Amino acid sequence: xxxxxxxxxxxxxxxxxxxxxxxxxxxxxSNQLCFSIYSAAHLFNRTYKPLLDRLGLTYPQYLVMxxxxxxxxxxxxxxxxxxxxxxxxxxxxxxxLEAAGLVSRQRDPQNERxxxxxxxxxxxxxxxxxxxxxxxxxxxxGLNLDGLKALKTQVDELRAGLAANLGPADRDD
Length: 173
What we know:
- The protein is mostly helical.
- It has helices at residues 2-13, 23-26, 33-53, 59-70, 76-83, 87-99, 121-126, 130-141, 145-165; strands at residues 74-75, 103-107, 115-119.
- It has a domain at 39-129: Winged helix-like DNA-binding domain superfamily/Winged helix DNA-binding domain (Arc Repressor Mutant, subunit A, Orthogonal Bundle), CATH 1.10.10.10.
- Helix content is 63%, strand content 7%.
- The protein starts with a helix and ends in an 8-residue tail after the last helix.
């Protein structure tokens, strides 16, 4: 039974070190879980692009806006932690959002080392388009809402499992 599970796992995700006979299957790109997720992420970005272009946002900027719509006035560090982005990546995104009039960045009066990011009126108003974007994405997936929620739960579990197996030296933070 354990061997059956192991063979299925190797064939299903193309893990290295599969037993003899299954190495050909393990080497197929179509059997790689990582490629399925990579290509789905690429297709998500392509699907989001025309929707976000209409709003004047890139996909990474949209993610920043989602964070701020959930909690305005966060520090740059708090936004970066939620998005798993370092300040070197996040700062240019925030500068472009500020130049577009969607956010404002100001030093925290209690702690000058912290920069707080707040939505402007235009940034708050942009949230009115969120439902349209999310509905279009749901339709594009071909899944129903329950299927999409179940898939998200599985991907969240996958991400948590992968993160838990990284050692401190392997993490970006």
